[in-house]
Design brief:
266 residues, 8 helices, alpha/beta
C-alpha cells in the first residue's frame, strides 16, 4: 500500500459547544462513540490507509490530555508517528494548518475532521490517496444534500465530470442564495504544496479573529488562477458527530454494524 501521501492532519482544537454537556470536561475529539473516542476512528483510518505521520493540532490546554491518550494507544499503532502542534488562538482551520507549516510544506497531505465519521467499503483516506496518485490534484470530498437545505451549506459549482463520482470544481460558495448544485463539502481534503502556499499567503493578511483564516483561503486562489481542484462524491455513510443528533445516529449505526458482523461470523 505505497502512496505518495503519508501524512494525515487532524485539527482537534474545537471546543465542541454543540456537544455540551458531553464536552464540559472532555475534549470533543475524545468523546466516545460506540465505546471508542472519536479521534480513535480517525487514527484507525490513518493506519488502514497506509499513513506514517499523524499531525494533531490543538489548543495548549488540551495537550496533556492528548499526550496521555496517545501514550496509551501508541502500542496499537507502531507504524504511526504522532506530531503535536499548538494553535494558541481560535483563528480558524486554515490558521491551524499553518501552525504545522514547516512540517507540511513541500508534500501532499490529507486533512480530516473529528466531526465527520465516514464509513464505507474502504477508509476514506485510502480512497483519497488513490485518487491523488491517479490525478495529482487537490481534492475535496463532496456529499449531496437536499435542494431545500443546499443554501445552508458550502456548495460547489461543477465543471467537467471526469467520472460519475469525480468532478472538476469551478467555484466554492458559502451558503449561496441560489445554489449552483446540491453538492456540499464535508470534512475531507487533499492539499498539494501549492494550495498550502496559497493558504500561507492568505494568512499574512487574514484578520486575527475567530475563524479569520479558513481552509478555503488556500483553495480559492488555485481556482482563480485556473488550477484544477477535484471533487469526489464518496460512497458510504457520513455522520456529523459535531452535534448530539449526529453522534446518536453514528452510535446506532455502529451498534447495528456490530450486530450484523456477529451474525455474519456465526
Amino acid at each position: 500500500m505505497n502512496s505518495s501521501i503519508t501524512t494525515l492532519v487532524l485539527p482537534v482544537a474545537g471546543k465542541g459547544v454543540r456537544l455540551l454537556p458531553l464536552t464540559t470536561n472532555t475534549p470533543k475529539a475524545l468523546v466516545p462513540v460506540a465505546g471508542k473516542p472519536l479521534i480513535l476512528y480517525l487514527i484507525e483510518e490513518a493506519a488502514l490507509s497506509g499513513m506514517k505521520d499523524v499531525v494533531l493540532i490543538m489548543s495548549p490546554d488540551m495537550r496533556p490530555r492528548f499526550e496521555e491518550f496517545l501514550k496509551e494507544i501508541q502500542p496499537q499503532f507502531p507504524e504511526l508517528i504522532f506530531h503535536i502542534y499548538e494553535q494558541n488562538d481560535p483563528w480558524g482551520h486554515g490558521h491551524a494548518l499553518l501552525t504545522a507549516y514547516d512540517f507540511l510544506k513541500g508534500k501532499p497531505f490529507i486533512i480530516r475532521f473529528m466531526d465527520d465519521l465516514i464509513f464505507g467499503k474502504e477508509p476514506v483516506s485510502l480512497s483519497l490517496s488513490k485518487l491523488f496518485d491517479e490525478y495529482k490534484k487537490p481534492i475535496m470530498l463532496l456529499e449531496p444534500v437536499s435542494s431545500e437545505r443546499a443554501s445552508s451549506y458550502g456548495i460547489v459549482r461543477l465543471g467537467e465530470s471526469i467520472s460519475s463520482t469525480v468532478h472538476k470544481i469551478v467555484e466554492f460558495i458559502e451558503k449561496p442564495k441560489d445554489p449552483p448544485s446540491n453538492l456540499s463539502v464535508p470534512g475531507g481534503y487533499v492539499f498539494t504544496p501549492e494550495v498550502l502556499e496559497h493558504l500561507k499567503e492568505a494568512g499574512a493578511e487574514a484578520p486575527q479573529v475567530p475563524d479569520g483564516l479558513l481552509i478555503f483561503e488556500g483553495i480559492h486562489p488555485e481556482l482563480r488562477k485556473g488550477g484544477e481542484v477535484l471533487g469526489w462524491q464518496f460512497p458510504g455513510k457520513r455522520f456529523d458527530c459535531g452535534n448530539l443528533e449526529g453522534l446518536a445516529a453514528a452510535e446506532e449505526f455502529l451498534k447495528q454494524e456490530q450486530v450484523v458482523s456477529k451474525i455474519a461470523q456465526a
